[in-house]
Structure formats: structure tokens, C-alpha cells
Specification:
Shape: globular
Strand content: 15-25%
Distance between the termini: 33 Å
Strand order of the largest sheet: 5-4-3-6-7-9-8
Number of helices: 10
Helix content: 40-55%
Number of strands: 9
Length: 254
């Protein structure tokens, strides 16, 4: 049975940016990108978004409505921006887990939190196979990470599994911009962004992939429906900066 599953999986394909690759190759390719950019990730985010990523994250933190004592899971938490805010809100009686599949990104986030005096559990883990019990967290967040996951539906189902009844999922992700702005946005993404990546991060190809991965990510309505299909209710989304980014929310009711 295991051999048949392995053979079947090896023939499946998925997207890596605009490339078509074998499913089993995607995780390693995504890992290469983020190992490469980890140390300059926040600098590049500021340059890529003109600092707007901080506004988007602030909006997400507000919508999370974290209270003292809550348990929060920050998936693909990277350099720790959301975990930092969540840890301060849950206080000493709460718990925030900072997780990422990429050890380089996670190391940057862990060190940054420690430098601020924030001690919180960290774990390298795959969002499609979360190592947490059912009904454990009050909130689950994933910021700018869902688009890099091979089986987004499996990851969303896992996020729902680990949420308590009444718990909320927040997905912050680059999305599909309003159509009148799309030509200018595409020109910037494929002509300017890779060049800035080459100059600042010494890595043009990784930032070309990031631009491509955004185009391949489901649009706002498609992602909302994916969340509903795995069992989330009260699903809604907020377009930010004309749809360059969107925050999706869903609640686990039972």
C-alpha cells in the first residue's frame, strides 16, 4: 500500500511559480527560496510593499481580537511579527506557538523575539501535518505562507482541526488586485521587484518566484470557498490596498 501511494504521488504535479513541478519537489524548492532570503526578508518586505505589510499585519492583529489566556498558533510565522504582537496580548497565562516549515526563517523569528525578551515555543513544522492535538487553539493565523503550500485544502483542514469550537482562522495573503490596476502591478512585479531583489538580497530568481506565486494563488472568492469546503463557517474577507492583499477569516463552530 505504501509503495502504491508513493508511486501515485510521484506522478502528481503542482505549481512552483509559473513552473510545473512534481509535488514532492515543491517543498524543497520553496525551502531554497526562503533559506536564501531569510536574513533580508523584512527589508525586502518594506521595499516590496512600501511598508504597507506592517499596516496589513496590524489590521490582522486587530481582527484576531486576542485576549489574555488564549492559545494562538502562528503558522509560517517567519520573522515573528504576528507572534510578537500575539504574545504581548495573551500575557503570561496564554500561549503563542511560532511555527514555520523553513528553519532559516524560524531562526530569525526566534532570535528576534528573544532579543525583545519574549520567550515563546517555536517549532519547525509542515502546515499540512500539524503536530498539535484537536481543539487546542483559540486562534490560528497564517500570513503570507498559504500560497507556498502544496495542498492548500489539506493545510486549511489541519488548521480547522487544531482550532477549538468557536476558534477563528485568519489568513493574510497577497491576492488579486482590482482589474484597472493590474497592468501597472504586473509591470512592477516582473520588472522592478526581481531587480530590487538582486540588489538588496543578491537573489533575483527568488523574488521572481515570489511574484509568480502571487499570480498562481487562488483569488479572494476561490479561497473563501476553499475555507467553506473544509468546514469553516462565517467566512469573510477584507480586501486591503485594492486587493493587493486580502485577509480571510473563518470560524470553527463545532
Amino acid at each position: 500500500m505504501e509503495n502504491k501511494t508513493s508511486q501515485s504521488n510521484s506522478s502528481e504535479t503542482t505549481h512552483f511559480g509559473f513552473q510545473t513541478v512534481a509535488e514532492h519537489e515543491k517543498a524543497a524548492k520553496v525551502a531554497e527560496v526562503f533559506h536564501s532570503v531569510a536574513q533580508r526578508y523584512d527589508v525586502m518586505n518594506d521595499l516590496m510593499s512600501a511598508g504597507l505589510h506592517r499596516v496589513w499585519k496590524s489590521f490582522t492583529i486587530g481582527r484576531a481580537a486576542i485576549r489574555p489566556g488564549m492559545k494562538v498558533l502562528d503558522i509560517a510565522g517567519g520573522t515573528g511579527d504576528l507572534s510578537k504582537a500575539f504574545a504581548r496580548k495573551v500575557g503570561p497565562t496564554g500561549q503563542v506557538w511560532l511555527t514555520d516549515i523553513n528553519s532559516s526563517m524560524l531562526g530569525v523569528g526566534r532570535d528576534r523575539l528573544l532579543d525583545l525578551g519574549i520567550v515563546t515555543p517555536v517549532s519547525v513544522c509542515d502546515a499540512e501535518y500539524l503536530p498539535f492535538p484537536d481543539n487546542y487553539f483559540d486562534r490560528v493565523s497564517v500570513a503570507f505562507g498559504l500560497r507556498n503550500m502544496t495542498h492548500k485544502d489539506n493545510a486549511l483542514a489541519e488548521m480547522r482541526r487544531v482550532l477549538k469550537p468557536g476558534g477563528k482562522l485568519l489568513v493574510l495573503e497577497f491576492s488579486h488586485i482590482a482589474k484597472p490596476l493590474a497592468p501597472a502591478y504586473d509591470w512592477y512585479s516582473f520588472n522592478i521587484l526581481p531587480k530590487v531583489g538582486k540588489i538588496v538580497a543578491q537573489d533575483e530568481e527568488s523574488y521572481r518566484y515570489l511574484a509568480e506565486s502571487i499570480r498562481m494563488h487562488p483569488d479572494q472568492e476561490t479561497l473563501a470557498n476553499m475555507m467553506r469546503e473544509v468546514g469553516f463557517e462565517r467566512v469573510q474577507y477584507f480586501n486591503l490596498t485594492a486587493g493587493i492583499c486580502a485577509l480571510h477569516e473563518g470560524v470553527k463552530l463545532d
